[in-house]
Please model this.
Amino acid sequence: MENLERRDFIKTSAVVAGGAMLSSLPLSGAYAAGSDVIKVALVGCGGRGTGATFDALSSGANIKVVALADAFKDNLDSTYNTLKEKWQDKIDVSDNHKFVGFDAYKEAIKLADVVILATPPGFRPTHFEEAIRQGKHVFMEKPVAVDIPGVQQVIRAAAEAKRKKLNVVVGLQRRYQTNYREAIKRIHDGAIGDITSGQVYWNSGGVWVRPRKPEQSEMEYQMRNWYYFNWLCGDHIVEQHVHNIDIANWVKGSYPVSIQGTGSRAHRTGKEYGEIYDNFALELTYADNSVVYSQCRHFEGIQNRVDEQFQATKGRVYLSAGGQAILYDWKGKEIYRHDAKGNPNPYQQEHKELFEAITKGEYKFDNAEYGAYSTLTGIIGRIACYTGKVIKWDEALKSTIKLGPDVLAWDAKPKLLPDTEGFYAVANPGQNTNLYI
Model:
């Protein structure tokens, strides 16, 4: 994939973005058209998992949630109660279909036709691989991995999903958002010429913090505060900024050949923020020598910015998840301005299209590939900033560094442990660079 020509990539991305059917042949997976109910299992009962299940249930398809799985019982109970209150007739989860623990996903997957994967992303490759092994259609949240071996695991499972004609949708919902679809179609059709540069941003105040409790083991503390540990989150450049990075790759019709950048912990420096940085700035260099600048930061009290813009040989474009999409020529004349009135909610649209395909017995979606490679772009960006090196795409793919612990158990130790004062080691560019690639 990393060496795809732009024209071939555009042809491929038109399919995987959700616009064209990959196959109208009957599915070989668990559910085929004509069945009465599509059975859904949720793996990962946090806020995003609950939200994704709401979106699935709002799709209009004949769905029943039949199983829930989470590492923590309180998370599972909270999600069950929330779903049951809103969707009473569509929640059919008996007590023996509520699974808790590190291996809970295996049992929940067995009971479903479609699996929603919404745990912290460090678990995504293993859960996705198991869902495909069991022959299930999948909706999985972004990002799809936190390290390069995890990306490779997802790519292998994606190839198997294709072979089995299992639909896979990834929660990079801008791919299902009308303004992005319409604008990027026009870009790929040549409306503003060839893309020469761009800027993508996710600057915000950061996310939640959950205080440590005396009774927690180190494993539980890190699991509860997963956003601040790379083996679970991948840092916010991967977990959150992947949305904007994915737009850069989609617009360019390719992936970077090298990445360099800088980052630090300038503002969120307390022990409660684990090991992650609070700011990153990257240069993504593509094969045609064009450069996209990428910026993300978690600073409280700043002006937020979450959008994308690109410059081309005949004009420029501005894009925003708020519904904006404007193409201009270089004289300032508008080529296209998107009207967002009446556009569907992209979080719901991705589920609507997925379940429509499954209901009709169609194979349409193989989002795992672009989800994996945009995730990889973020991972390489993190490595570039942590090490202070220029990281080449092809070299990065050789990495065997796995961030997760060797054993998953509540009394097991993660690889990163706090010092005597409760602080975690943070990447220092120029030092211990072999730890990251």
Notes: The chain has 13 helices and 15 strands. The longest strand covers residues 195-204.
